[in-house]
Amino acid sequence: MTASTLVLWRHGQTPFNAENRFQGQLDVPLDDVGRAQAAAAAAHLSALPLDAVVSSDLVRAVDTATALTSLTGLALTRDPALREVDAGEWQGLLGDEIARRWPEEHAAWRRGADVRTGGGETRSELGARVAGAVERHAAAVPGGGTLLVASHGAALKAGVLRLLGLPPTAGDAFAGLRNAHWAVLRRRSRAWALEEYNAGPAGARVGAEG
Fold first, then answer.
1. Buried b (16+ CB within 10 A) or exposed e, 38-72
2. Does residue 24 have a known ligand-binding role?
3. 121: domain range?
4. Is residue 148 one of the residues assigned to a domain?
5. Which of 64, 92, 135, 170 has the most C-beta neighbours closer than 10 Å?
6. Is residue 11 among the annotated active site residues?
7. How many domains would you assign to the chain?
8. What positions does the entry give for substrate binding (predicted)?
């Protein structure tokens, strides 16, 4: 038993995304735009042959996933291991404020170095956590099935890199997932291959981490 297709879906917009404010693991809800984004994406994703839906236990991911499960009738499993990066002292702060208060650390983070995000997790720790959770849930899906994971921007980017066997510092290979957009990975032999990235409805934005 294991899924052959992964759909990795970022949550809709939150007020913090709109302000370019770091969320990390703060439990920030969707705003009106984010709820509309989630509904539009869910209408598209509900046409896929999904076998299971899991999400981060943070409300912005749960509410995004619920927009889909309300259409499909599938049960939603919540997993704290799919949460956003632990951004430590940077959580709740604007990007400009972080750059001013922690110039060297922020510059290294912007370069894609595998440094602690605000004193929290490194990219490698984040990728291992998220990819491990995705693989665990994928293993419970009937062979050849499709697993959808609703999570967060930095978490999914780090998880995709890990699932593809790329180093955590290879983030420049991909832009951030836009709000309510997704990536599709398919299993080829024993490895995952990226089939789509930043697929989704129009009108979403990249926004801040989270």
1. bbbbbeebbeeebbbbbbbebbbbbbbbbbbbeeb
2. no
3. 5-199
4. yes
5. 64
6. yes
7. 1
8. 10-17, 60, 110-111
| Residue 96 in domain | yes
Residue 84 falls in the annotated catalytic set: yes
* Annotated binding-site residue? 60: yes
What are the start-end ranges of the H helices in 12-166?
A: 15-19, 32-45, 59-72, 95-101, 103-110, 123-138, 153-163
* Residue 21 assigned as binding residue: no
Region for residue 74 given its phi and psi (left: phi exceeds 0; alpha: psi -120 to 50; beta: otherwise): beta
Please report which helix (H) or strand (E) contains residue 146, including its range: strand 146-151
Cα 140 from chain centroid (whole Å) = 20
Query: Two tokens at 31?
Result: 């705003």
Strand arrangement, sheet containing 76-78? 76-78, 52-55, 146-151, 5-10, 182-188, 191-199
Q: How far apart are CA 59 and CA 62, in angstroms?
A: 5
| pLDDT per residue as tens digits for the range 154-195 | 999 999 999 999 999 998 888 889 999 999 999 998 899 999
Tokens of 140: 């419970």
